[in-house]
């Protein structure tokens, strides 16, 4: 069992946070209405708070990359080490497959399920996305329902955040408008 640390940092969309162990990043926290809530989520598993100036070099680089991504600059996180010990084998497979979906691209819940050998697992993919510990790094905002339906998004801000993250990548699955009716 590795010791866990956490730190917060400013971005174009507000105060975000990271948690990590020696094995890799354990979590990304998008902004909450109250920065104290962001810190509480980051440290809920016992992570020790680290000042931004004291983070290890790999984490400092990741912070710069996340700041760039959240400013709308194409950024990839493909080689980043993730500590997935809190997730099931199914979730790990889904997250690994999703990390292959690049900037400005999307995939449906059903397509992602098929990619990991579970062609009838769209609903299970949706549940796995709801438990994603690394929004943006494991880009669950890029997973859409059939016919461009936005699906869900469990990070703070819900669907508005999902739409904003997609828009930063130039993706407007609903033409930029909320779909109230099909």
Would you count the extended β strands for me?
6
Portion in strands: 5-15%
Helicity range: 25-40%
Order of helices and strands: EEEHEHHEHHEH
Largest sheet: 4 strands, mixed
Mean pLDDT: 91
Side by side, the strands of the main sheet go: 3-2-1-4
Number of helices: 6
Shape: globular
Given as residue ranges, the uncertain stretches (5+ residues, pLDDT < 50) are none
SS-derived structural category: alpha/beta
The first-to-last residue Cα distance is 49 Å
Our Rg estimate from Cα atoms comes to 16 Å
List keywords for this structure.
alpha/beta; globular; 4-stranded mixed beta sheet; 182 residues; single chain
Written account of the structure:
With 182 residues, the protein is of the alpha/beta class. It has helices spanning 35-42, 57-70, 89-98, 109-115, 122-130, 158-168; strands at residues 5-11, 14-21, 24-29, 48-49, 107-108, 143-144. The strands form two sheets. Strands 3-2-1-4 form a four-stranded mixed sheet. A two-stranded parallel sheet has the order 5-6. The radius of gyration is 16 Å and the shape is globular.
